Amino acid sequence: MAAEHTVLDPRTMRDVMGNFCTGVTVITALDGGDPLGFACQSFSSVSLDPPLVSFCPARTSTTWPKIREIGTFAINVLAESQRTLCAAFAVSGGNKFRGIRWAPGDNGAPAIEGALARVEATIENEVDAGDHTIVIARVTGLTTLHNGGPLLFYRGEYGHYSRM
């Protein structure tokens, strides 16, 4: 017997899921001398042993296939002051690194100046998941860079964390 699937309105799905606050990252890699990157809010820790993280690029991404081919990358955890930087990486095409200060990290992938932390990794596995891909990555390096607040995404808007 086949399972029945409820048809849900994508806008309703987005609105309801927007109630879950997420941090924002930029996934980067170096293609020869050219830096690549895209903004990604679907990032999480998966396992401590072995050290694994996950993120979900859109299947329409033109940057992820290039980073996949390189195989090593960095996940830059953005600070609350990096809203404009995030917007530059959230669009398709163009020179996303124009005006962005960065240096090669330990694995060569661009480490974005001002980010709170950097997770360096390699691809462990990928799973097709609707209009996105679930990437499971093995962590090869971890760096905490700053103690400031994170850039957050909530109900379709950027915000910041405030301690009570």
UniProtKB/TrEMBL annotation:
Keyword Oxidoreductase listed: yes
Family indicated by similarity: Belongs to the non-flavoprotein flavin reductase family.
Annotated source species: Rhodococcus chondri
Domain of life: Bacteria
SMART domains: Flavin_Reduct (SM00903)
InterPro entries in the record: Flavin_Rdtase-like_dom, NADH-dep_flavin_reductase, Split_barrel_FMN-bd
Descriptive protein name: Flavin reductase family protein
Alphabetized UniProt keyword annotations: Oxidoreductase
Alphabetized SUPFAM superfamilies for the sequence: FMN-binding split barrel (SSF50475)
Molecular function via GO: oxidoreductase activity
EC number: 1.-.-.-
Pfam families according to UniProt: Flavin_Reduct
Residue span(s) of domain Flavin reductase like: 17-160
